[in-house]
Amino acid sequence: MKRRRLWTLVVWGSLALSGSLAWAGDPTGAQTLKSDPGLPVDYVWVLICGFMVMFMQAGFACVEAGFCRAKNVTNLFTKNVMDFVVGSLAFWALGYGIMMGTDWKGLLGTSGFFLSGDGYDVGNYLTFFWQMVFAATAATIVSGAVAERLKFQAYLVYSAVITLFIYPIYGHWVWGGGWLSKLPYGLGHLDFAGSGVVHAVGGFIGLAGAIVLGPRYGKFDKNGRPRAIPGHSLPMAALGTFILWFGWYGFNPGSTFSAHHLRISVIAVNTTLAASAASLTALLIILLKTRRFDLGMALNGALAGLVAITAPCAWVEAWAAAVIGIVAGFIVVAGVYLLEGLKIDDPVGAVPVHGFNGIWGLLAVGIFADGTYGNYSIEPPFVKGLLYGGGVDQFISQLIGAGALILWAFGCGLVLFKVLDSLMGIRVEPKEELMGLDIIEHGTPAYPEFYTMNSQT
Amino acid sequence: MKRRRLWTLVVWGSLALSGSLAWAGDPTGAQTLKSDPGLPVDYVWVLICGFMVMFMQAGFACVEAGFCRAKNVTNLFTKNVMDFVVGSLAFWALGYGIMMGTDWKGLLGTSGFFLSGDGYDVGNYLTFFWQMVFAATAATIVSGAVAERLKFQAYLVYSAVITLFIYPIYGHWVWGGGWLSKLPYGLGHLDFAGSGVVHAVGGFIGLAGAIVLGPRYGKFDKNGRPRAIPGHSLPMAALGTFILWFGWYGFNPGSTFSAHHLRISVIAVNTTLAASAASLTALLIILLKTRRFDLGMALNGALAGLVAITAPCAWVEAWAAAVIGIVAGFIVVAGVYLLEGLKIDDPVGAVPVHGFNGIWGLLAVGIFADGTYGNYSIEPPFVKGLLYGGGVDQFISQLIGAGALILWAFGCGLVLFKVLDSLMGIRVEPKEELMGLDIIEHGTPAYPEFYTMNSQT
Amino acid sequence: MKRRRLWTLVVWGSLALSGSLAWAGDPTGAQTLKSDPGLPVDYVWVLICGFMVMFMQAGFACVEAGFCRAKNVTNLFTKNVMDFVVGSLAFWALGYGIMMGTDWKGLLGTSGFFLSGDGYDVGNYLTFFWQMVFAATAATIVSGAVAERLKFQAYLVYSAVITLFIYPIYGHWVWGGGWLSKLPYGLGHLDFAGSGVVHAVGGFIGLAGAIVLGPRYGKFDKNGRPRAIPGHSLPMAALGTFILWFGWYGFNPGSTFSAHHLRISVIAVNTTLAASAASLTALLIILLKTRRFDLGMALNGALAGLVAITAPCAWVEAWAAAVIGIVAGFIVVAGVYLLEGLKIDDPVGAVPVHGFNGIWGLLAVGIFADGTYGNYSIEPPFVKGLLYGGGVDQFISQLIGAGALILWAFGCGLVLFKVLDSLMGIRVEPKEELMGLDIIEHGTPAYPEFYTMNSQT
């Protein structure tokens, strides 16, 4: 009987994540409960983890606004509220169906729009809720890279496009039963909780946006040397990072989509150790360079480690998580300098944190996976990487997925921002940029009673 | 066997919410566990959701203080801490017994004070915890409407009175087995998670308070035209809204009081879509009117949608949640202008958000309930509204409950504030109001090291 | 069958908390699940509560920074990030093995370092995660007492030493099967969720640090009279307190380490009532003294109540929780004045809140335990204190544990800070202290765009 129970769970979990969703159309939940009385704890697990992922929106808002100047803070909070608002509605209408609906040639899903018909089912609503909070996260990541100079109406449009098409289509390839999930190397391309699907997609769209927009006024002097533009509130950025770290415990462990995978404890530990190792690494690198304990880099280091461990978190053990984190710490620091060297202005470091470390996380699966957990399953086959005798197969799948991601996200991003720019102009006027976006776009400063320096450099 | 299990759950859930609580007096929990080994997941669900509801106190504090002026911020945070402190103690002493104790003529409960005697029982403590965090929420809502001019000692008294009597008595009528729950139309008056019991009660007491107090100095010019008094920190208000939105995922889905109702996934989705639809609606209305993307209205829009979906969230499907949200967006904007037209000063918009939209949520049950969920039960009879062939019966019960609520809450509020005013004077001196309440009432400004403009308009 | 199930749980729970951990080396979790299909809900409970405890780091950061001056805010946030970063890595490497590994003569554990070998097991990772977030809390508490004058490099070193040795050794004595847990009075020394192990240990190390460092410049005038140094942001301190209060619902109820102890509902209620009673008490004492509603003392009062109820929360009923809270309110106020009288400068009140009230919590177990819950078990023997006919036995164990704690924590703290001081000097230069630590140690102020008064008194 226990075997049957396990089997049910595996099947159910696989179904939920495989794109071949055949819902019973049980909106009450009574039939679903009878078919598997062990489901309540899975629902509790997935929902509460999903709530924590939704709360990450607050974290992103605080990190981005904290690292930017006071004159753009109303703008950044409005963006971070509205991308969840617009994203959830857009994903409900079309995005979810494109991502998780009936597969069409491995490219996109074609059913399940508006949760209608047989989609009115407790299991389908559960899956939708989970995928929706993830989709909103991807859109939010972009806003950091294009901060302090993008028109708000352009923001609304691109947020919708990301959650309607760009994110769901790539998501379908990996999590919806699309072609990347069926690559013939290893177990196909694997991305446990979304280093690639969520973070790198967001990061590379953001990179495209930062390039199309060009740097903020004053970011580079006339010799092209970068100038530091300090954020207006380090406490806000730090609080945001704590909120994100907290929410990541929903993001990663919750991605088992089942509490019956006791492996969730391993995932929670790995998430912690990678974040800590990356934060310490980034802090020490800057300490050696500047003799200062740099809070901003410690925060971005922690986020970098969290992004990097997101894909491999379920398939590696503690020491590997720490190593993945150390590398993530190096990558985030190097990435910041690289972008500055290329004269690309990413105000909050979204590209190194989410883009570069997202790719690193995908590759790490192929290196460190240790053969103790399967494809969202506690039954074999298990995932094995280079260091555990799995050969290069899994690594090849990871490389292909990473390559596809960069081409898709960066390519779509370039097209999107270029088209929007030619249609409506995506950058605010220079005068507005100097004054800050808050007054003209939103009619109110963030802190109307406080005297602030209008930082123009 | 599965049937028996389901049956146990239904009975237990109904008991817990019906007022006829007959506790076994099992403080260890061993007997209770033996009687139903499926209870642990229900306890985990209810408790964690309850913790999230408690965390909403932080959200209310941030929203209220963010929307008010710096000179009153210490005061607002002190209020928001102390109403939870006083409210939890008052509800423990008397409120809980009045709300959920043995029914007396459908009017109030008469047992279970101080959790003593047979009340020392794991199930009773669970129910108390849940009802206590809800009661504290109702008290907190009022503070927004009376902000920036109410004496602190009056605040302490009225908070206690609300959690001791006003809230529990109305709560008994709906959730404690009182007369509203037994109306002969439909399934009696229904309010799943408290659009009425919690939010509208708080909102209409607040309306009474705002009327008795009169507007803040400078809110209306000598021709009676309203003047905008901007809040001192939009980031604080936005962070507070994110916290409230997060906490609402405890508030609404947790109100099943059982994880065995897999319908919790539907509730989570409905909660999201209503909030998003309302926020977008409110933003767009103000955009059309002013050409500005108004963050404050987007935030209040989200909260309005959350309030409105709170009563119907378990009984409707996704599209209905979105429609309920769109209407909520209109109501909150119209409500703000209506109050200004009536020369009533509600500094943070608590009355339109919680009062008017709370009533809307009650009525929406009678319109959109689709016959897929019962009275906190996954067994029939199910709740059906106008649009799903249920006729007007349920709507009539909702109307009666809404009418009773407005009479009770607004009436008690008027009496309470009038009596307090004649006893102790509830409004601070004009000089103190101009200086801000922080120095005189609390001895310290909120931000002693920052230079702030003392905003007197 | 139900009996067997109960028995499994008791055994498992006891094992997990007894130090004689014999892990199966099951990294997949499939075998563990088969051996007890009821485990998923326990894992969900422990993990989510653990996530909430981790989030308390954000609360500590906000409380400490809010109660300190703007010029040291970058420093305080960097400390609070880095002590979790360093603490989690140090506890992974050595601390956990010293605390929970195979017992050596009742003094320390000697196995399980780096989670390696058979330690790669879902149950072991779960236990590690839980103990790790607790260990990081203890280190964080110290930072409040030594705020605004300690060198950052000294901070990094002492954080590591605490999580590597001081905390785990005392933790082993109580929770790892060491000598205090085996005292022959009552059920041995008991500390349910760590009033002693976590809070008092942190508080008394902090006391040693505050003494070795000496008071901040300007804290005492030349006649030795204390001068108030207001914190720079009361909203930040209040938000931090709300976050801590929220996180405490993970800290205390989660310490059952099992959702099958339905007693978790009682623990949640007790946690609330103690916090509320203590906050109200502290507020009223200061009101009588100064005629002001003091927000800072209300916040510290709530924290004091939370600390005091942490040890007894599982063994007492509601009225006792309220009484424990009232006493905690008196203790925190008296403690603040006592330290000032002794010319000890504890900027945020960490010693009265965590140190003195931690000891009070330990003693309260011996007084109020009512014989309804065992040693992390719902099976007898149950814990009984003075007021419930248990005699003085349990109280004696509590006294011995409290005495050992003070000697160990205060002693180790003195040695640690003295040695560090002679090796590297732990106090910043007077000039740096006047300027604030942010610029010199971290290279950036917390709020670079806001005009602030540099508060030197």
From TrEMBL, chains A, B, C:
Gene3D superfamilies: Ammonium transporter AmtB like domains. GO terms for biological process: ammonium homeostasis. Keywords: Ammonia transport, Membrane, Transmembrane, Transmembrane helix, Transport. InterPro entries: Ammonium/urea_transptr (IPR029020), Ammonium_transpt (IPR001905), Ammonium_transpt_CS (IPR018047), NH4_transpt_AmtB-like_dom (IPR024041), RhesusRHD (IPR002229). GO terms for molecular function: ammonium channel activity. GO terms for cellular component: plasma membrane. It is found in: Cell membrane; Membrane. The chain crosses the membrane at residues 43-63, 84-102, 122-147, 154-173, 193-213, 234-251, 263-288, 295-312, 318-339, 351-369, 395-417. Its main location: membrane. It is a multi-pass membrane protein. Belongs to the ammonia transporter channel (TC 1.A.11.2) family. PANTHER family: AMMONIUM TRANSPORTER. This is Ammonium transporter. It comes from Thermosulfuriphilus ammonigenes.
